Amino acid sequence: MTAILKERPAALGEAAGITVLPNAQGTMLGADIVGFDFDALLPEQVAAVRAAWIRHGVVRFRGTQITDEQHMRFTALLGEFVKHPRQLKGEEGAHDRYEEILIIGNGKRDGKVVGTMANNEAQWHTDTYIYDRPPAAALLRAMQLPSSGGDTYWADMYAVYQALPVAVRKVIEGRLIQLDIVYDGSNRVRVGQQEPDSDDIRLWAGIRHPIVRTHGESGRNCVYIGSEKRSNWIVGLPLDESNAILAEIMDHVRNPAHQWMQVWQPHDMVMWDNRCTMHRRNGWSAEETRIMHRTTTRGERPHYVC
Ligand code: SIN
Fold this sequence. Notes:
By secondary structure, the chain is α+β, with helices and mostly antiparallel strands.
């Protein structure tokens, strides 16, 4: 049985010459890392960041001023790169030199759009749940920011699991959720998929993951639902029951008591754990440009340990 952490863990404090400052927003999520050396990438500092990331789910490096090469070198120390379909050569989120980097935003080069997701608000999701082994780490770095908007929010899916009534947990533990892989977060048909010819979402193309997931490193259980789409289904449940439980889960995700919010400052980099968090972001004016560079690392195949 996985131990459930009910209390906020103590701050990591000083370790390997870096300081870990838990967030001041009062939730478990989020900590600032101060003093990390992106040039040296010392193994003991990387290990301390990794420990803080597992503990807090989201960590932030303020004003990094690092290059794409440093961003990638650091990412490579955390795991194998995962490439989102939109970052592949020729796609709207492709970087002009490095296929390891996804460009998110509404940039333009020579009149052509550079960046995916434009300036839209993004709904709650975890990254790239369409794969058998979705990402563990995501590292998002601010390259250009609008004067307002584009704030990002994370929800703590361990806390969401703990907030669910025992009766609901009993229903979902050991079950799979079928996640819609036909439409992307902007409701476009994904590359390689086709419009479904049925209204019954259970018949749509999907990927199945455990809805209660045991984190591969912390060993703690959390809820994993990929996105807040109405086209996801808890396999084996009648649709109305599945929809009601997913709506109840989303109520907890939307509860600010389970969230951490980032108002971006120039050169900030935020690194989150996609296995135990969801995130969303606000939109911003189409007149302004926001450009972010993101890398992701491969996670374990989602599993549930009773
Ligand atoms: C993302 O969903 O990975 C991007 C979030 C953001 O643009 O703040």
